[in-house]
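User: Here's a chain of 347 residues. Predict its fold as tokens.
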Amino acid sequence: MRTRLARLYGQRDLRLEVQNIAEPGEGEVLLKMAAGGICGSDLHYYQDGGFGPIRVREPIVPGHEASGHVAALGASAAGLAIGELVAVNPSQPCGSCRFCREGLAIHCLNMRFMGSAMRFPHTQGMFRDWLVVPVRQCFPAGTLIGAGEAACAEPLAVCLHAVARAGDIKDKHVLVTGAGPIGALVVAAARHAGAGAIVVTDLADAALDRAMAMGATRVVNLRRDPAGLGEYEVDKGQFDVVFECSAAESALRGAIAAVRPRGLIVQVGVTGDITLPLNALVGKELRLIGSQRFDSEFALAVELIADRRIDVRPIISHSFPVDQAVAAFEQAGDRSVACKVQLTFLS
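Assistant: Prediction complete.
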């Protein structure tokens, strides 16, 4: 069997290729891929050849947000039916290192994450027509939703993990900085967790419109209104919790100014080195914590999408067939109109 795939060779060098694919082996599943979302890390690989210290050092098939239909089952691969729509968990912890044994598989020392250039050789991703994966990575997505929705399970899992890092946020006053796909899904996850008011900031109206569709109670365009958070800075700050999703230094500074004393800032967005107003961090006794990827939240994300307790359709802005992958990546780079850009595969 042959499969088409999109392979990245370096900065803006993405090629459609064809290669052989093996039959599923013991405990494996052959998937006819249906939809795959372009993530921020995929976009960094394409635009810049990597981000921070993570560089594309050999050809890599991107894609770690995807869904497909079960086409064949290998020996001992049980629990799935032919034709069933599944979301694919790209996370492959080793299960035996120190952190896996401690129940912290998210920090696995030997993590293989599909479509990631973090390790060498790189872990190949899912932008392809056909894919063989272990059955344990496939999560049934039901019959109510489409393949594009199922492919949003991975980014939603990231956001569910970020919200879980904040603890109980029921009725809390929440700020989300950055309304890209992750920011918009953090809004949905925070709303699902019972947050009270959810204020969202961004520089683009299209992004803020999607944040409202995902459950924000107020949005602020800081390009048009740079002082738009000023009212939340009075009396040492008004927000209980901030989810910083933009990775912009100015956004994190604004978060520190707007969060109340002993409030919490969950850093979700990633970037290079930045400077922080440490005096304010210390003086307000703030908690600043990080959040990356997910663990058990993937299964929950699939469940919440499958019955539309969280409706992800508002974030899916564009869809391109895989043979137009370059156009899809270029579109994903235009944040004025794009949110979650997805690839589709042979039907």
